[in-house]
Write a structure and sequence with these properties.
Layout: H1 2-16, E1 33-37, H2 48-56, E2 61-64, H3 71-83, E3 89-95, H4 96-104, E4 111-119, H5 128-132, E5 144-148, E6 154-158, H6 160-167, H7 173-182, E7 186-187, H8 188-191, E8 205-210, H9 218-227, E9 232-236, H10 243-246, H11 248-260
Parallel strand pairs: 1-2, 1-3, 3-4, 4-8, 8-9
Antiparallel strand pairs: 5-6, 6-7
């Protein structure tokens, strides 16, 4: 009787077209969006090599336009970009952009990691200007030119004839000249504005240090990375302050680690 019942049930399934199906495979978790924040004397396209490599790995990317007007206002601008992203975010900042992401991530629960690329990571009340002079080695001041803004502040740029030596010594002369011509000035008040409570105290961080940086001395970069208790500190000896352009693969490797954590 059991054999007959089994055969009858099988025949019924065949007639009605009902068949057992496997459960659908779970959808893969979406990759975090990577928000890249440039610093002073640079612009969004300075991340081009990083962006193209992240796209090849399937990551959505936003290269934010950092206003470079003031730390609080710049951070609020980037914070609004982060708030508009659906899903997790990895924030990466270069140079002064590190100060910005340290503040922009605060209060944004979707930020899962901070990546500092030859960048400032200030504590509360600290300034980019103060951190760059905390250890000897920065030669930035002697390369700057000013444009008064009429309110007692000034825009600062690196003289184009000094740009490669100061900012991009490991780029070709042609690439350094292109970056010198397209650099965006920073308002001097932004470099002297104190940071708020830094997000790196509660959000995991990764640091890439540039061994031949003439803007932020290597000792200052190490100090900030160690103080932040970074998950990983990578160092590229001989890399200029433009390490994100000269070594985009190393930047992407750290961002992917942050995104995968």
């Amino acid at each position: 009787m059991r054999v007959i019942a089994a055969v009858t049930a099988a025949a019924l399934l065949a007639v009605t077209g009902v068949a057992a199906t496997a459960a659908p495979a779970a959808e893969p978790e979406p990759k975090p969006t990577v928000v890249l924040v440039h610093g002073a004397f640079a612009e969004s396209a300075s991340w081009s090599g990083v962006v193209s490599r992240l796209h090849k790995r399937g990551y959505p990317v936003i290269a934010a336009a950092n206003p470079l007007r003031g730390l609080a206002s710049d951070s609020e601008h980037v914070s609004r970009i982060v708030k508009n992203v659906k899903g997790p975010v990895v924030l990466a900042g270069h140079s002064y952009g590190g100060s910005v992401i340290s503040n922009a991530a605060r209060g944004n629960a979707n930020v899962k990691g901070l990546v500092f690329v030859a960048a400032f990571a200030p504590d509360k009340g600290e300034t980019a200007l103060g951190l760059s002079s905390k250890f000897p080695g920065s030669t930035l001041g002697e390369t700057l030119e000013q444009v008064p803004l009429g309110d007692g502040t000034a825009d600062l740029s690196i003289r184009q004839d000094r740009f490669r030596q100061q900012f991009a010594a490991d780029l070709s002369p042609a690439d350094a000249a292109l970056n010198a011509a397209t650099q965006r000035p920073i308002r001097d008040a932004a470099l002297a504005e104190g940071s708020g409570d830094p997000a790196w105290r509660s959000v995991p961080s990764w640091f890439l240090l540039a061994g031949a940086d003439r803007n932020i001395p290597l000792a200052a970069q190490r100090f900030m990375a160690e103080r932040a208790k970074a998950r990983q500190i990578a160092e590229i000896g001989g890399a200029s302050h433009s390490v994100g352009i000269s070594h985009p693969g190393a930047v992407v490797d750290l961002i992917v680690k942050a995104a995968s954590s």
